[in-house]
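Moderator note: this is an archived Q&A kept for reference. The question asked for a predicted structure of one protein chain; the sequence and the answer are reproduced below.
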Amino acid sequence: MLKTNLLLFLILAGTLSASAANRSVSVSTQVPPPRQAPPANTLPSVFNQAPPPRQPPPPRQAPAANPLPSVFNQVPRRRQAPAANVPPSVFNTGTQTLPLQPAGPATAVSTNGLSTTTVDGYSARVDNTIITLGEVRESILPYLQQLNRRYHGEELAKRVAQAYIDGREALIEEKLLSAEAKDLGLVLPESVVNEEINNMIRERFNNDRVRLNQALAERRMTMEEWRQEVTDQIIVRMFYSREVTQRASVSAQAVRDEYERTKQEYFIPSRVKYRFILINKGRTDNDRAVKKKQAQDILKKLRNGADFETVAKEFSEGDTGVTPWRDLRDIREEFHTALENTPVGGISDLIETRDEYYIVQVVERREEGYTPFEDVREQIKRKLLAAERERLHKDLIARLSAKHFIERY
């Protein structure tokens, strides 16, 4: 589920972030090589005949110069070839360095079998598109910060390792969606792109194009390159919405059936509101005799019509207020018989415990039952829709994974 949520976050988030506009970002001076064009037969159209048998991928290229945009910066920085001194088995969380994999050289695991190629700085590959360790870290950075605040030691290392795996898989899925959208030839009207660009500049840069240009310059990116990446992002969102979000539906009967199937989850035990008069027994035999006589006299007065609240304020040696709704299972056992058998507004008999006498008045009672279907219908519908979207998501990714070459390092 975390992996799916990360993918949805990557898809739904925009290209630019306001927080990054106000801080300086250091950029490597290394200029990546130009993007290599994929082989003509890498992505056969889904509208043509069945794709030919999978071919071995082209030789590994340095990361492309114009990737899909990162969601955590205003403008994604130009993808650099991974630094040679960053071992893939280590992931820097910002406050400490944590192991993600067993120590030793990373081994590339391919969908075609085990490869013994040692890599350094690469996380995964979809066709001829490289996903770097830095991209994975950037995609899960907010989550890593949360983990650093909540966990320590081995538990932190375990959770960071899982977050890395989930982040990598989410990026792989993003690349699969992008490749399929391009393979299908999906395009956008210029007006849609212009509107999105203008909205982003207005909302994230306060309509200040100077700030936008500064952010672009810091990342060695032109306006046209950024515009293309925004276009790609919108197309991916549209494609995903068409294939998953818009297809997910749940019938009214399915919602009703789910309610009946899980009805026990909506069971409401009997509950009661009450108040009481407390008289402590005292420590000596003489005190106990006096206190018992006092409790009996109070009960007699109440039986004769005295107002319970008034008498409680005068004589009770404990709280005199009305309790909130309480389940009998949460109330001391000595009260159960009185609370079950005394009618609403009625007065119980004298209740004796080891150290006290109690007189209870039942103020309100709710009999056990089930939350009405109408009260939980929308809740159940949302749950079923989420499950259906998850199913459609998995089916889509499985289909795309079978069509494209995927390699994990």
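Archived answer notes: The chain has two domains: 2-36+50-251+387-408, 270-367.
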